[in-house]
């Protein structure tokens, strides 16, 4: 029976530590001579930034989110009925102009 402790003995190539390349910094740390030269060239520290104020919260013109959802639900519920009524009205008006009226005399 093989246990987990035997795997590193059986397969030493699989358990070698991975080579991690040393990360070199891309810039050098500032030295006193560097900072003195920067100040001689006219360098100065940035002024502190003004505080950012948050904009006031805007409220919807009518009620809350629930009222908007109710209104959207009512529109969605009545939309099929309105579409059906419009289609029937268009078909009946077209049918009326296609057939002449018969006048019935009593």
Structure description:
There is one protein chain. The chain is an all-alpha fold and 106 residues long. The protein has helices at 4-10, 32-40, 65-98. The protein is elongated. The longest helix has 34 residues, at 65-98. The chain crosses the membrane at residues 69-95. Keywords: Membrane, Transmembrane, Transmembrane helix.
Poorly predicted spans: none
Number of helices: 3
Order of helices and strands: HHH
Gross morphology is elongated
Number of strands: 0
Helix proportion: 40-55%
* Beta-strand proportion: under 5%
Pairing-aware structural class of the strands and helices?
mainly alpha
Keywords: Membrane, Transmembrane, Transmembrane helix
Transmembrane segments: 69-95
């Amino acid at each position: 029976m093989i246990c987990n402790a035997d795997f590193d003995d059986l397969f030493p190539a699989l358990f070698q530590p991975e080579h991690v390349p040393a990360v070199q910094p891309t810039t050098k740390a500032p030295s006193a001579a560097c900072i003195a030269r920067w100040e001689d060239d006219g360098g100065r520290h940035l002024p502190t930034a003004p505080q950012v104020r948050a904009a006031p919260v805007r409220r919807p013109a009518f009620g809350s989110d629930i009222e908007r959802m109710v209104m959207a639900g009512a529109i969605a519920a009545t939309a099929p009925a309105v579409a059906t009524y419009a289609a029937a009205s268009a078909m009946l008006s077209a049918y009326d102009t296609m057939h002449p009226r018969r006048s019935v005399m009593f």
